[in-house]
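Q: Given only this backbone (698 positions), what sequence would you predict?
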């Protein structure tokens, strides 16, 4: 965005057709940004408080949503929790909003307040993240896999029998047979009894993990929400949907966007069922498969898609960050062509946990993420020092009245959580020396993805390169890792395999959504903690119900029902039987990625108009950017042109249109999935959508 228009951004209220979409404020005090960027804040204070009835409604809806998620992500092929906001939660919020609108007209005294609606949204988001395809579904897939699929050839009995604790895995053959073959019921004692003990202990572990995460978010809340004024683009839609004035739903621009994306999604769904009906293709297809001539074919997979919801979110993202995302994506592709021309793509370095082929993109990405983490923590150093002194020296340098819990409680809670998690890992058999390393690396990534969502608002944060096992296996000689260490990494893999649905960003966004209502943050802390505690028992119920009914290894469930177990225990057994050794070359490129990230951060601080963001460099090779670069390009270019030629007023007028694009595709796309579940047939999947088989496959 040009400096001319950036400097015009002041603290003004939204004026488009009477809608109240918030205010625009300068964020020049943001240590991680050197330009002014329009951000959407909520001008009206949220009314109400967190109530028991809101919590009860959220718990009931959690059961329904988890059943829906299992149908979508385990049995079928659709992944709501791959991108934020989770489309199943947005659709549920829309239904609840519609019901509440009728209640407000007929019985206003019993209608839900805005805070109650936000409470339901937040609790559903946290519980959906726990039950998701890339979190709890991985755990359920691996708990009995190593036992049931052990053969004389893979020698898994020999490798794992003594290294996997009985209280965390399932070994009963009868239960596992019914689990994988189906046509049975969870509610038979021979099926559910063997799962009770391991399920209980994993529920305890998950509750501790989420409590520790929640405390860390409480420590950082004020710095990100109030001091740096990070934009939090993802919360814009749910905040506008829950606005008690209902201005979003009276805005004609919103309904225009809704009609466009909704109508095309209807056509796409009909085309899926009746291919003779023409419809534009919105979901992804791989044009990289058409590029066969060297050196250009070195770019590999190039996914093109036109997701309306992603275009809408891109329009809300800070412009310099959204532009950096697609720009670094193509710079990353062009470097692959360059290295193919020079022959350097043929350089291979075996071993370690990262990639093993030049230019070691995963290794670079890891280093860049760590560099960005260091930059963000460095910018917060004075605040964190004041928090520490306020908590333990009584200096009162930071006002705690608006915090979910006191700083002392948050710090002690995080410390107690880490200690408890360490005891859990030690009971599993993990070596004392690796326990603190593992959890420090893990929570660094948890903080990072929360920061990504807060600052950038990028809808996917699949940090598959950021698992603690990656760095540990790369820099640690394998002979220093015992079999129980490697087995423990395998058992913990469900917490770090992807991070795309980790609940941490939703926790921080919850505090952002109630920032203007003093006292509610403390109540929201309790609601989020309760949602995290109940999410896993409900998730076990829904997942095991589906597995025993359909059968994990049958064609009635998607490949992931068994693929996670094959992937994780296959890699673990290979690491035990054939130690990969360290990889100094990959470690070197971790350092290179770290250095480039720090250099980009320095340039942004040193040069006022420097356009490249270190976070975009870190994300350039990720799955999310590869799927969404085109919608991000469209959304960012639209924002640039509207600001340049229409000014701030035109931008404010256009925001509801792009919110309508998001809501229209999510609403109609969700209805297609529900129709498929009710009728027992495959239906159109608007996200991410299977690739066109002519052009390539996933």
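A: Predicted residues:
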């Amino acid at each position: 965005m040009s400096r001319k228009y950036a400097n015009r951004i002041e603290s003004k209220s939204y004026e488009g057709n009477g809608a109240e979409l918030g205010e625009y404020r300068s964020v020049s005090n943001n240590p991680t940004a050197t330009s002014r960027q329009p951000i959407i804040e909520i001008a009206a204070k949220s009314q109400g408080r967190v109530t028991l009835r809101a919590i009860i409604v959220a718990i009931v809806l959690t059961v329904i949503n988890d059943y829906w998620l299992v149908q979508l992500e385990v049995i079928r092929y659709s992944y709501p929790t791959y991108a934020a906001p989770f489309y199943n939660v947005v659709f549920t919020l829309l239904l609840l909003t519609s019901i509440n609108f009728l209640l407000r007209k007929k019985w206003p005294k019993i209608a839900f307040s805005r805070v109650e609606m936000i409470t339901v949204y937040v609790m559903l988001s946290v519980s959906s993240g726990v039950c998701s395809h890339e979190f709890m579904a991985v755990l359920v897939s691996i708990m009995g896999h190593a036992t049931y699929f052990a053969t004389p050839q893979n020698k898994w009995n020999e490798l794992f029998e003594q290294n996997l604790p009985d209280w965390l895995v399932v070994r009963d053959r009868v239960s596992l047979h019914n689990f994988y073959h189906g046509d049975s019921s969870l509610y038979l004692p021979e099926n559910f009894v063997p799962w009770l003990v391991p399920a209980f202990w994993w529920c305890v572990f998950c509750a501790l993990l989420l409590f520790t995460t929640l405390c860390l978010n409480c420590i950082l809340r004020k710095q990100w929400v109030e001091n740096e004024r990070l934009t939090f683009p993802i919360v814009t839609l749910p905040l506008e949907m829950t606005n008690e004035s209902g201005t979003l739903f009276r805005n004609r621009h919103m309904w225009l966007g809704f009609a466009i994306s909704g109508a095309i999604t209807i056509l796409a769904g009909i085309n899926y069922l009746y291919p003779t009906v023409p419809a534009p293709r919105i979901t992804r297809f791989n044009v990289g498969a058409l590029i066969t001539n060297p050196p250009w074919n070195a770019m590999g997979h190039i996914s093109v898609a036109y997701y309306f919801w992603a275009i809408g979110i891109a329009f809300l993202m800070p412009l310099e960050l959204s532009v950096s995302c697609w720009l670094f994506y193509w710079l990353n592709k062009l470097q692959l062509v360059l290295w193919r021309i020079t022959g350097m793509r043929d350089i291979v370095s075996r071993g370690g946990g990262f990639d093993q082929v030049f230019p070691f993109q995963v290794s670079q990405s890891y280093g860049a993420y760590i560099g960005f983490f260091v930059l963000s923590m460095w910018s917060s150093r004075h605040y964190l020092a004041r928090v520490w002194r306020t908590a333990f020296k009584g200096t009162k340098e930071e006002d705690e009245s608006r915090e979910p819990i006191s700083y002392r409680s948050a710090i002690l809670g995080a410390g107690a959580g880490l200690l408890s998690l360490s005891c859990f890992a030690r009971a599993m058999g993990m070596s004392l020396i690796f326990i603190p390393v593992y959890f420090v690396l893990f929570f660094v990534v948890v903080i990072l993805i929360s920061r990504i969502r807060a600052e950038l608002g990028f809808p996917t944060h699949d940090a598959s390169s950021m698992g603690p096992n990656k760095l540990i296996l790369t820099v640690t000689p394998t002979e220093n890792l015992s079999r129980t260490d490697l087995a423990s990494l395998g058992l913990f893999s469900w917490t770090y395999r992807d991070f795309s649905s980790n609940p941490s960003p939703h926790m921080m966004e919850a505090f952002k959504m109630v920032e203007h209502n003093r006292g509610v943050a403390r109540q929201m802390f309790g609601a989020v903690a309760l949602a995290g505690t109940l999410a896993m028992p409900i998730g076990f119920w829904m997942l095991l119900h589906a597995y025993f009914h359909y059968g994990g290894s049958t064609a009635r469930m998607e490949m992931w029902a068994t693929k996670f177990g094959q992937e994780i225990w296959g890699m673990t057994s290979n690491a035990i039987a054939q130690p990969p050794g360290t990889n100094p070359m990959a470690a070197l490129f971790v350092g290179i990625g770290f250095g480039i990230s720090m250099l980009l951060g320095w340039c942004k601080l040193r040069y006022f108009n420097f356009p490249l963001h270190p976070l975009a460099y870190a994300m350039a090779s990720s799955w999310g950017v590869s799927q969404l670069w085109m919608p991000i390009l469209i959304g960012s270019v639209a924002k640039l042109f509207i600001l340049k030629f229409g000014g701030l007023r035109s931008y404010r007028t256009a925001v509801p249109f792009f919110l309508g694009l998001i809501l229209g595709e999510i609403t109609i796309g969700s209805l297609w999935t529900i129709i498929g579940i009710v009728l027992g047939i495959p239906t159109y999947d608007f996200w991410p959508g299977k690739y066109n088989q002519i052009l390539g496959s996933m």
